[in-house]
Amino acid sequence: MKFIEAIKNRWKHFLNKLGEENKKTFGDAPLDCCSLNQKQNH
């Protein structure tokens, strides 16, 4: 059972990192096809 727990914990860690990267890239707003293709002036 420890093997399954290790896989489960690694999967959760992976999903959390993926979520954080998505938040950095796209922000907290819902994704909208019209806003994704627009460049913003910084």
UniProtKB/TrEMBL annotation:
<protein>
    <submittedName>
        <fullName>LDCC motif putative metal-binding protein</fullName>
    </submittedName>
</protein>
